[in-house]
Write a structure and sequence with these properties.
The structure is a single chain. The protein has a two-stranded antiparallel sheet with strand order 1-2. The radius of gyration is 13 Å and the shape is globular. Helix content is 54%, strand content 7%. The chain is mainly alpha-helical and 84 residues long. The chain starts with a helix and ends with a helix.
Length: 84
Amino acid sequence: MVDEQKLLTRITVNPEIFGGKPIIRGRRLAVEHVLSMLAAGDAADTILEGYPWLEPEDIQACLVYAERASESDPSSARDLESCD
């Protein structure tokens, strides 16, 4: 079983990076970018190859973050649909 709270510690917010959008471990890679790549059909392995410092747990953390965000704000799912 994955410890979701532990995974979420990988997601950070820094007002100095990407305007305070959630990022992965303080790096300049936004959670939304990883989610967009997954939504576009990129495999996790492909993403990991493109970002050598990224770990599989980082991708899991992005998915957990998205799930939590959609649970707390159901309208966010509608917002994502409008991006098509």
